[in-house]
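Work Package 3 (structural annotation) set out to generate three-dimensional models for the target panel prioritized at the project kickoff. During this period the team completed the workflow that converts sequence records into discrete structure tokens, so that structures can be stored uniformly alongside our sequence database. As a representative example, we reproduce one entry of 198 residues exactly as it appears in the project archive.
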Amino acid sequence: MTTLQPQSQNENQHPNPSLEQVFSVSLTKSVTDPSPTNANVTWQQIINYFTLFTIALIKDGPMIAFCHMVGGTKLGNINGLIHAIALDFDKLSTIQMWDALALAKRLSTHGIVHTTYSDRESSLTDQEESRKELCRCFRVILPFDTPVAVEQWSDVWHQFAVAFHQFAGATCDAQCKNPNRRYYLPGNPQGQVFLEAW
């Protein structure tokens, strides 16, 4: 089972896949797409998929799940193991977002952090106060070196959620914790997206 230890303490018990490791994903064109495309791809291909997107002015659009799926809509049926975790955070400060990014980089040699559709830049003019305004919405995606079975998912999700809360004061959106969830690619009605992939 995946555990959460900083890389310097325990190199073998948290997500540290290579760029060429193969992951199972399910891709759909939109939330109403009844026919997901299951594929086996490298982490580098997943990064390319996220970074070569068009800024979305509407929320609905391409989606990804980090496992093979059967059936369309936002929630489908899992066919196999789960290859990465995605954690959603809503209405946090910019400071908390940077802290979550720092923790993600400590936990895994590879990952993606990006703002989501509901993210807003601060409207405050004072720079220090603007970094504290609770307006940031973002997602952290970390791949597993060993895929996780559905039966283990609740424990694994909880471990990650606790770690991000303790380190960054960031509470994960529990409505997005189900293992069969598909996630939208980055998009924002203001046409502004922060994305860092490694």
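Strands lie at 22-28, 37-42, 63-65, 69-70, 77-78, 82-92, 112-115, 136-148, 183-184, 195-197.
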